[in-house]
User: Which sequence fits this backbone?
């Protein structure tokens, strides 16, 4: 055994030492000269880092459970713990951020300003909780669920809302939950594994966060007939993630099957019950091993991540100040003029990028309309095949079939547009980073993470799997299309107005098809326009933030450069002492022994 392998980390000593360094940094925040030289923004930044780090040292291993809407995340949590912590039969959708931690049984809604509200178990029911939330003046921070379960002594579970339409309301909350987490359990459905939207979310919000562990869980595996189907689906998932999550092994299981096994009731699929049990047991053992491994090292690991991020963040401003301390007064005006000059070029670049996006969306809009034209033509031709179907069956099933298959078609079109937009904007953000000398590691996610928020998820972009697994339950992105489809379905199935014969029904369907087609084509066109508008909004936000950062840095440079030599000498002294404090933290706390990731967390505002 090599000598280095025998070295252990004393977590308590690491934390104590780091807290001493934070105390040292706090003296600079209270130093008047430091505040004058570095400005209020820098001091606020130091305060935010101090708050974030001190808060994190008290938090046990944190695991976030996330995934799209109705993927069985809450059911999986119940199966892990072997009891209904989140009672899925009454709370069918997670509508708050839920923190599950150890303590006497209690449900507390955490509000802003130090306020909270205790809830009964009955008030956790979906409708009851929605009613309570609707009466609050502001959105709560999260729901704190305390449970006397031994496993929760070592881990906090964050149960997040679905990443579909709910992300419009919870985007910032889910993002913050991921930043607070040491490991992630991402849950997807084996019926439509890892849609384009899910893949984009993983690339932007998960891949580069440097989590200690990522579990990729395919739920509802009890719906497969045999082990061979499970193996094929696992291969499909591997191929979908191999370019951005290499080495991650998907786990296919069934939370429902595991809870049935725990409760001693009939299993949903006896044919593959043993395979599902082995898979779940393997996942749970791996999760428990993670808890054992990280119990003593997770806080030091987290401290090192924050130390790295903090020193790099603060150090960039110190570099500007050091440059300004060696500059002449005339350089201050030159720097401000340079920023103003670059602003014009920056806006020109923004305009060119927006034109590229418009051109791409115009092409994709034409492609989507062409695809839908062809698809609807085939759907219309297939109407004649209904002559072999009874009138009752047409009334029972055809409208549902129509709704589902049009859902899939629109969803597939939008998925292709989003995939191309993601790739285009990812390239654009790297171009911006290169041309303007901005760190792409911090700027690229601001665009790409934002891209999969808001109306990007409203289309519920599910894609067909490689082996043509069906997609179901996809919602419509636009109200007019939903309205016309409802009218279409109602017109087809209205037995009071239509004779109970297939010929009459077929004629009715054909008569209404033109109205349906117009609505579908309008919706397809509008969908592309909305995606284009969101992309341009993200570009505008990117450039606004970039210009604001450049102006602040230039102003900091100018303020310091305009000091007289006596003032500069005093400033050099305080900056030198602050730099030495940051250097001590660098040398002590991120030698690379604990943290492998280069991705940094961010301070809480």
Assistant:
């Amino acid at each position: 055994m090599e000598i280095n392998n025998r070295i252990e980390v004393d977590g308590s000593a690491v934390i104590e030492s780091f807290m001493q360094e934070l105390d040292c940094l706090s003296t600079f925040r209270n130093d008047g000269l430091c505040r004058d030289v570095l400005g209020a923004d820098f001091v606020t930044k130091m305060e935010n880092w101090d708050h974030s780090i001190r808060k994190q040292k008290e938090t046990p291993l944190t695991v976030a459970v996330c995934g799209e809407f109705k993927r069985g995340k809450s059911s999986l949590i119940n199966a892990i713990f072997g009891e209904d912590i989140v009672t899925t039969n009454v709370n069918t959708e997670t509508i708050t951020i839920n923190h599950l931690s150890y303590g006497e049984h209690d449900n507390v809604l955490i509000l802003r300003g130090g306020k909270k509200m205790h809830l009964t178990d009955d008030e956790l029911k979906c409708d009851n909780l929605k009613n309570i939330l609707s009466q609050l003046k502001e959105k709560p921070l999260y729901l704190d669920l305390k449970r006397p379960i031994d496993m929760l002594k070592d881990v906090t579970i964050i149960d997040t809302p679905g990443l579909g339409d709910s992300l419009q309301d919870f985007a910032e909350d889910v993002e913050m939950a991921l930043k607070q987490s040491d490991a992630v359990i991402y849950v997807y459905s084996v019926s439509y594994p890892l849609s384009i939207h899910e893949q984009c979310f993983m690339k932007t919000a998960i891949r580069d966060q440097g989590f200690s562990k990522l579990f990729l869980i395919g739920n509802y595996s009890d719906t497969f007939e045999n082990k061979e189907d499970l193996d094929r689906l696992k291969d499909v998932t591997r191929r979908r993630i191999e370019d951005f999550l290499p080495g991650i092994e998907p786990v296919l299981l069934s939370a429902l099957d595991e809870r049935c096994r725990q409760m001693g009731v009939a299993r949903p699929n006896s044919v593959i019950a043993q395979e599902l049990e082995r898979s779940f047991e393997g996942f749970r053992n791996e999760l428990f091993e993670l808890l054992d491994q990280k119990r003593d090292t997770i806080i030091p690991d987290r401290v090192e991540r924050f130390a790295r991020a903090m020193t790099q963040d603060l150090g960039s401003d110190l570099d500007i100040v050091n440059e300004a301390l060696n500059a002449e007064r005339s350089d201050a005006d030159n720097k401000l003029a340079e920023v103003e000059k670059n602003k014009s070029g920056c806006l020109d670049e923004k305009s060119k990028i927006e034109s590229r996006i418009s051109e791409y969306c115009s092409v994709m809009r034409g492609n989507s309309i062409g695809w839908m034209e062809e698809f609807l033509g085939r759907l219309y031709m297939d109407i004649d095949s209904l002559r072999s179907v009874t009138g009752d069956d047409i009334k029972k099933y055809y409208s549902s079939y129509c709704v589902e298959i049009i859902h899939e078609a629109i969803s597939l079109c939008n998925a292709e547009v989003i995939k191309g937009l993601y790739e285009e904007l990812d390239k654009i953000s790297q171009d911006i980073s290169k041309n303007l000398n901005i760190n792409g590691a911090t700027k690229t996610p601001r665009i790409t993470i934002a891209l999969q928020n808001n109306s990007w998820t409203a289309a519920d972009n599910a894609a067909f799997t490689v082996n043509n697994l069906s997609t179901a339950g996809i919602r419509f992105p636009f109200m007019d299309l939903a309205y016309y489809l409802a009218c279409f379905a109602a017109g087809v199935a209205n037995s009071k107005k239509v004779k109970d014969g297939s010929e009459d029904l077929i004629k009715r369907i054909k008569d209404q098809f033109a109205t349906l087609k117009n609505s579908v084509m309008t919706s397809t066109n509008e969908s592309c326009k909305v995606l284009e508008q969101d992309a341009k909004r993200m570009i505008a936000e990117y450039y606004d933030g970039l210009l604001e950062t450049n102006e602040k840095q230039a102003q900091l440079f100018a303020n310091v450069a305009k000091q007289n030599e006596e003032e500069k000498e005093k400033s050099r002294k305080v900056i030198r002492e602050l730099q030495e404090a940051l250097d001590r933290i660098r040398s002590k706390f991120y030698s690379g022994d604990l943290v492998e990731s280069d991705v940094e967390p961010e301070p809480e505002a």
Summary: Residues 329-557 form one domain. The chain has a mean pLDDT of 77. The longest strand covers residues 61-67.
